């Protein structure tokens, strides 16, 4: 049985596209059953619709508080019978309550070699720190931001004349390889897919 995956986005959704493309192969162990954006009009919603995947907006601004927003999120994910949630450029922090309800079932992709450079603007952080290399990480989401067991990483060099934009573009190419291959491993092996296991 293929694992049912929901992808949470806030923007362009190029990682979503990479997951959609991978999941079209008959042997891929996961299928994307739902895409949710917290931002109305996010381009990723269109990508989903184009591929016949259910797409919906749950606008956090329409809710009184984080708890109510997450309740709506939880209801949609439960309705879709999601086994795995992939965060792909999803720009909302999820509370411990939500994360615990979906414990060990939420993955995130982050554009640095964690544990280095957590939070935002991490490409600039890598340049400012004079890092010789950076990259991307897929990890299991735990209540602590950009923490949690690492499932996979790919690295790229940081070049002397890099800007945040040029470095982001180089990393993004690797993200598009890393996320589909890591999700496949996780769908098949679960937490045993972590590097330490
Ligand atoms: C990626 O760099 C991802 O690592 C970060 O947000 C960006 C999303 O890009 N979390 P896209 O929407 O998948 O194109």
Q: Layout of SSEs?
A:
Blueprint: E1 3-9, H1 14-23, E2 30-37, H2 43-50, E3 55-57, H3 66-79, E4 84-87, H4 96-101, E5 106-110, H5 122-128, E6 133-140, E7 150-157, H6 164-189
Parallel strand pairs: 1-2, 1-4, 2-3, 4-5
Antiparallel strand pairs: 5-6, 6-7
Helix pairs in contact: 1-6, 5-6
The structure holds 5-O-phosphono-beta-D-ribofuranosylamine (GRF).
How many helical stretches?
Answer: 6
Number of separate structural domains: 1
CATH class: Alpha Beta
Strand content: 15-25%
Helix content: 25-40%
Give the gist of this structure.
This protein is an alpha/beta fold.
What does this structure look like?
It is a single chain. By secondary structure, the chain is of the alpha/beta class. It has one domain: Rossmann fold (3-Layer(aba) Sandwich). The protein has helices spanning 14-23, 43-50, 66-79, 96-101, 122-128, 164-189; strands at 3-9, 30-37, 55-57, 84-87, 106-110, 133-140, 150-157. It has a seven-stranded mixed beta sheet with strand order 3-2-1-4-5-6-7, with helices on one face. Helix 4 links the parallel strand 4 (84-87) and strand 5. The two termini are 23 Å apart. The structure holds 5-O-phosphono-beta-D-ribofuranosylamine (GRF). The site of 5-O-phosphono-beta-D-ribofuranosylamine has 14 residues, from helix 1, strand 5 and helix 6.
């Amino acid at each position: 049985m293929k694992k049912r995956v929901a992808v949470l986005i806030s923007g362009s959704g190029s990682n979503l596209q990479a997951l959609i493309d991978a999941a079209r192969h008959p042997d891929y162990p996961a299928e994307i059953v739902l895409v949710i954006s917290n931002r109305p009009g996010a381009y990723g919603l269109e990508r989903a619709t184009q591929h016949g995947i259910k797409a919906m907006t749950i606008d956090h601004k329409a809710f009184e508080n984080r708890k109510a927003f997450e309740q709506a999120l939880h209801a949609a994910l439960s309705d879709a019978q999601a086994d795995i949630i992939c965060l792909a450029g999803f720009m909302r922090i999820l509370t411990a309550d939500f994360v615990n309800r979906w414990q060990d079932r939420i993955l995130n992709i982050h554009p640095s070699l964690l544990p280095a450079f957590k939070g935002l603007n991490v490409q600039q952080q890598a340049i400012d720190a004079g890092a010789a290399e950076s990259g991307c990480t897929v990890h299991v989401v735990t209540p602590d931001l950009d923490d949690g067991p690492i499932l996979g990483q790919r690295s790229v060099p940081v070049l002397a004349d890099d800007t945040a934009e040029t470095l982001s573009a180089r990393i993004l190419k690797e993200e598009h390889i890393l996320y589909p291959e890591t999700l496949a491993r996780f769908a098949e092996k679960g937490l045993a897919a972590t590097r330490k296991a």
